[in-house]
């Protein structure tokens, strides 16, 4: 048996007598998902681990990994994440990684896949109210990052059509919430 749920998101509202937008937010309902009853938590969000590795391989990119169904679902994000809601970052699905890889930092040897320096750029927890594996299977994951550098609401959306590379291409998008920053610039840990 399934039920229809609405996932809450934050929307900016106009406050004050002068009609200017301010930093007030209200709950809105952005999307309706059809999900099994046991996939939704009523009050307490599902909280899982995430890591973003800065990866100096052939080309600098960032590896996003979300703990999901006992593994690390993984995407290579060439330009890295952004806190600017206007940036839509390509995220290419790559093979899942072991959860032990969430703590990895070091050098991948020349001649091996992804050879080069790997450092943890950010890590922490992410939250969602719907089973993340179910969202992944549907091609749209809505979650909240609780990291040191990335915070707030994000969406990962699987692309379709001729640019989708057989479903491997996704977009990582920051929601316009209280953590959004249109002047945000990504800073690497290691020199480029």
Question: What does this molecule look like?
Answer:
With 192 residues, this protein is mainly beta. It has one domain (40-174). The chain has one helix at 132-138; strands spanning 2-14, 21-36, 46-56, 60-68, 71-77, 88-97, 106-108, 116-128, 140-146, 151-158, 169-174. An eight-stranded antiparallel β-barrel has the order 3-4-5-6-11-10-9-8. Strands 1-2 form a two-stranded antiparallel sheet. A hairpin with a 2-residue loop joins strand 4 and strand 5 (71-77). The longest helix has 7 residues, at 132-138. Mean pLDDT is 82; it is low at 1-32.
Counted up, domains total: 1
Counted by DSSP, the helix tally is 1
Whole-Å distance between the termini?
52 Å
Structural class determined from secondary elements: mainly beta
**Percent of residues in beta strands:** over 45%
Compact summary:
The chain is mostly beta strands and 192 residues long. It is built from 1 helix and 11 strands, in the order ββββββββαβββ.
List keywords for this structure.
eight-stranded antiparallel beta barrel; two-stranded antiparallel sheet; 11 strands; globular
């Amino acid at each position: 048996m399934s039920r229809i749920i609405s996932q809450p998101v934050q929307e900016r509202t106009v406050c004050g007598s002068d009609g200017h937008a301010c930093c007030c937010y209200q709950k809105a309902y952005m999307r309706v998902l059809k999900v099994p009853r046991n996939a939704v938590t009523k009050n307490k969000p599902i909280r899982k681990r995430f890591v973003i590795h800065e990866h100096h391989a052939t080309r600098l990119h960032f590896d996003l990994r979300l703990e999901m169904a006992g593994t690390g679902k993984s995407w290579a994000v060439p330009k890295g994440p952004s806190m600017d809601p206007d940036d839509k970052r390509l995220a290419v699905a790559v093979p899942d990684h072991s959860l032990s890889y969430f703590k990895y930092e070091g050098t991948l040897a020349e001649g091996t896949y992804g050879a080069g320096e790997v450092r943890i750029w950010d890590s922490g927890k992410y939250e969602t109210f719907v089973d993340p594996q179910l969202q992944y299977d549907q091609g749209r994951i809505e979650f909240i990052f609780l990291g040191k550098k990335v915070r707030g609401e994000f969406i990962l959306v699987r692309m379709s059509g001729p640019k989708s590379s057989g479903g491997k291409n996704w977009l990582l998008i920051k929601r316009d919430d209280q953590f959004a920053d249109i002047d945000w610039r990504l800073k690497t840990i290691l020199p480029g």
